[in-house]
Specification:
The chain has about 170 residues and is α+β, with helices and mostly antiparallel strands. The chain contains three helices and six strands; from the N terminus they run E-E-H-E-E-E-E-H-H. Helix content is about 20%, strand content about 35%.
């Protein structure tokens, strides 16, 4: 995965829950085009909702992968629900709270909430909900040619786990 939409993991409850944080900064290139100044209107940089959903999927995917200590290749299978009700702007933080709803040999179902923190108020506010399903590639697509190495949980994910004090989960 080239793009990471989570910066750190702040809570890990094995087999149940994972909470990750994304700090939104004006230094991020994608914010300069979303929404750029036009005519007499000034720029209105906001974090695209699609990238917030991707951040939630990455958080829930890491949780799903941790269930089997990252031995399975976990891929997003279906977004059943994704609702974002407010914008996030530079200087705010996003908190992704993912929980396992069900797990079986073929995959897992997760539910999650997305919150934003405005440093001026110091309050977290719920701005979204998700229901995301993941598939275990090794179980569901046997017979197809996939690399032996875990191409889903790349070095970027491993670095986030190590930096968050969870590197032992990959052993």
């Amino acid at each position: 995965m080239r793009w990471m939409w989570i910066d750190t993991i702040v809570t890990y409850e094995p087999d149940r829950r994972l909470v990750a944080i994304k700090n939104v900064s004006l230094a991020e290139e994608h914010l300069h085009d979303h929404f750029a100044a036009t005519g007499d209107l000034p720029a209105q940089p906001v974090m695209p909702a699609s990238l917030m959903i991707e951040g939630m999927a990455q958080t829930a995917g890491v949780l799903t992968g941790s269930l089997r200590r990252f031995k399975e290749k976990v891929v997003l299978a279906k977004i059943q629900k994704a609702e974002i009700t407010a914008d996030v702007v530079p200087g705010q933080c996003i908190r992704y709270d993912a929980r396992i709803e069900r797990i079986d040999p073929m995959g897992a179902g997760t539910v999650g909430t997305i919150e934003r923190l405005d440093h001026r108020t110091g309050q977290w506010e719920k701005i979204g909900e998700t229901e995301i399903m993941f598939s275990h590639v090794d179980q569901n697509m046997s017979g197809l040619a996939f690399p032996e190495h875990n191409f889903v949980f790349s070095d970027s994910f491993r670095n986030v786990l190590r930096a968050s004090g969870l590197g032992h989960l990959m052993d």
